[in-house]
Write a structure and sequence with these properties.
Blueprint: H1 5-14, H2 17-20, E1 34-35, E2 42-51, H3 56-65, E3 70-76, H4 86-94, E4 99-103, E5 105-106, H5 109-114, E6 121-123, E7 125-126, E8 149-151, E9 154-156, E10 161-165, E11 168-172, H6 179-200
Parallel strand pairs: 2-3, 3-4, 4-6, 5-7
Antiparallel strand pairs: 1-6, 2-10, 8-9, 10-11
């Protein structure tokens, strides 16, 4: 039986993302998109912002649109300006966001690390150059919010599942990886401690490691 949306998200919070990597080939973001802090595993629904101009007001509109459990995913054109810092992070937490992913830099690293238990943040780096209160995107018909965007080699659509941990970010369709894959990954995680214990005990590796 297929999982409900809530059951799917809860199950994805318990599976190791690298374990999914044993079964999936697509959806993994480029390696330069990395965690800024060390919070809980990120799992949530994407709300996207296409920041074609360094407009801080557009970021604020995106923050106000967030709902609990959302992940704000921002594409920063040119990757030159940080749209996320201490104030942005606090606002996202106040909205109940699950996390923030920025295909570009962020700022206020120390503050983001202090908030890591409440808001995992991923980015391609750090900068002191930030977005401006320019209003350059005010005339965009959709406010640059909830567009299909490209980040770190992957397409992200509003409503996609966004997963992240110390290894990086994985984008999945709204229905997840499929019950068969998820069940296999959960079973693999459950079996791993016993497998590691067998190796540590000195059991011959030929009896443990599959070769075909």
């Amino acid at each position: 039986m297929s999982r409900s949306t809530e059951e799917l998200i809860e199950a994805l919070k318990t599976v190791e993302i690298p374990t999914l990597g044993h079964f999936l080939e697509e959806g993994f973001c480029d390696q330069d998109l990395r965690p800024v802090n060390s919070g809980p595993q990120l799992v949530g629904r994407a709300r996207t912002l296409d920041l074609t101009k360094p407009d801080a007001f557009a970021v604020n509109r995106a923050l106000l649109a967030l709902e609990p459990g959302d992940v704000l995913v921002i594409r920063v054109a040119g990757r030159g300006h940080a749209p996320v810092g201490a104030v942005t992070a606090h606002a996202a937490i106040a909205q109940g966001a699950a996390g923030i992913v920025v295909d570009g830099p962020v700022t206020d690293q120390a503050a983001l690390r202090e908030l890591q238990d409440q808001l995992p943040v991923f980015s391609t780096g750090l900068t002191a150059r930030t977005t401006k209160r320019s209003g350059e995107l005010a005339n965009e018909p959709d406010g640059a919010l909830d567009r299909t965007i490209e980040i770190a080699g992957q397409t992200v659509r509003p409503g996609d599942l966004v997963l992240g941990d110390a290894q990086g970010v994985l984008i999945l369709p709204p229905e997840g990886p499929g019950d068969d894959v998820l069940d296999a990954a959960l079973a693999s995680d459950a079996a791993e401690p016993a497998l590691v214990a067998r190796i540590a005990s000195g059991e011959p590796l030929a009896a443990i490691l599959a070769t075909e």
